[in-house]
Amino acid sequence: MQRSRARWVVLALVALFLAPNLASVPNGWPFSPPAHAAVQPQDTPTTVLADGVSSYTLAPPKLFWATRPTCIPARPTTGVLLATNTTSESISRIAIAGSPARMLFSNTVGSSCGQQNLQINSDIIADANYVYWIGQNNTLVRLSTNANVGDVPAVFATAISGPLVQDSDSIFTLVSNSPNPGNSIIQVAKADGS
Length: 194
Known about the structure:
Mean pLDDT: 79
Helix content: 10-25%
Shape: extended
Largest sheet: 4 strands, antiparallel
Number of helices: 1
Low-confidence stretches: none
Strand order of the largest sheet: 1-2-5-6
Number of strands: 13
Structural class: mainly beta
Strand content: 25-35%
């Protein structure tokens, strides 16, 4: 009983102490968030790559990107629907702090839309040593981050069917449970592909 009365006395004193301060606070609420001035940009963004990027990944200190062919129907001027097509795919990199862009991989895919020989069939991911993607025939492939155009990507795992994610030691992806429906998530060790 004595303790309960002491609590009420403390609460009453706190209320009396705060009451005069409530009149000076807008809206009478002492915990109103402060008004902020509008944020003004301090810098102008710099375009690193103008266009054509299909996917990108950051593996500091480098930014990697892939370009894949497009097959876009053109506006018919003669009544025939024409298609415009880029005929190559590539993977390149640039230092975050600025450097010339460096191409690591390039493949000519052919000029017929829908009949191209694609070797980059997913978004790319990268770490300090390799760039990874899903290649032909649902294979997980990797290429050294120091590769030169013409170096052949190494097949790292097979029967891959889904997006790629990574941690420091492994790549995680989907594999088809064919002929059964659905997929399973697998872990592929970066060290040896197991």
